[in-house]
Amino acid sequence: MTFVRFAARRLAEMAATLLAASFVIFGAMYLAPGNPASFLLSGRSASPEALKAINDQYHLNDPFWEQYLRWLGQVLHGDFGRSIEYRTPVSTLLAARLPTTLLLVAMALVLVVTVGLALGWIGAVRGGATDGAILVGTTLAVGTPSFVAAVLLQGLFSVKLGWFPSSGSGAGFTQMLWHLTLPAIALALYLIGMLARVTRSAMLEAMGHEHVTVARSRGVPERQVIRRHVFRNTQGTVLTMGGLIVSTLLICTVLVETAFSVNGIGQLLDLSTTTKDFPVVQAISLIIVGIFMTVNLIVDLLLPLIDPRVALGTRGAGA
Questions:
Q1: Domain check: are 148 and 9 in the same one?
Q2: What is the extent of the structural domain holding 7?
Q3: How many domains does the chain have?
């Protein structure tokens, strides 16, 4: 299979999966208890005429398929509808909040990749007490949920030491970086531990391969052996985690942004779920699914280029 054919097939599969995901996302909201009309009324009683006007405005009484097809057609044109709570277009809300979340995820991703790979490398190469300490530390990181890490970081670095703000997103790029530092650490902690352990295991396995032994017997410097023959063989394994890492970061932003009062789409999703703001929840859920699938597509396309032993359409590297 050629690269172009494989890419076209994966794009078609992605489109079909997104279509199925859109149906599930749209339908799941209507299976949840409650009614958006009751939120619009804020608990007040309303006349049948007023209730009918609300239902007509938001098409709440239309058949399910009609509502879904109308919504899908709007989404395909970039229109996610109008927020029930904020009375503004959903796209406007997302445009105001999405950059903050993307910056937070980007900061956390940089921490995950740099710190996770470095710890895995050091643990595999040095061994001994250093490796043991890294294993203990990464085990604690993996066992610490994001919201627990957020509370601990706030208590230590915001309340006790006063080094970082405990809430808010900041104004301006520099202020945003300062405000998002603790949330990024809380968001990245679990994945740093996981990536470090995966990298360490993959490197230890690669060290036992025959070509590594041959390189050492030929007098190749140990640094080159590790960099060219050991770590290079682990890149495929690490790359396959790309989709999992990004999806975990996006999902955990809901907890972290809520804990730090960060004005991003994670906090917006939490608030909108509580108030049954259907259009907002559906839009954010679809965006998260789309980002996750896009990352997986990129991983599938890059993996054969990084490791020629991996055939198009497969995951993982052979020994």
A1: no
A2: 3-76
A3: 2
Distant-in-sequence, close-in-space partners of 102: CB < 8 Å, separation ≥ 6: none
Nearest-angstrom CA–CA distance, 96 and 65: 31
Contact (CB, 8 A) for 203 and 127: no
With left for phi above 0 and alpha for psi between -120 and 50, is residue 73 left, alpha or beta?
A: alpha
Is this structure's pTM higher than 0.85? no
Are both 63 and 129 inside the same structural domain? Answer: no
Least confident of 26-30, 77-81, 303-307: 303-307
Question: What does each C-alpha distance from 5 to 1, 42, 144, 228, 312 come to in angstroms?
Answer: 7, 54, 43, 31, 10
Residue 158 has pLDDT above 80, yes or no: yes
Residue type, 253: T
Q: Which amino acid is at 257?
A: E
Contact 289, 21 (CB under 8 A): yes
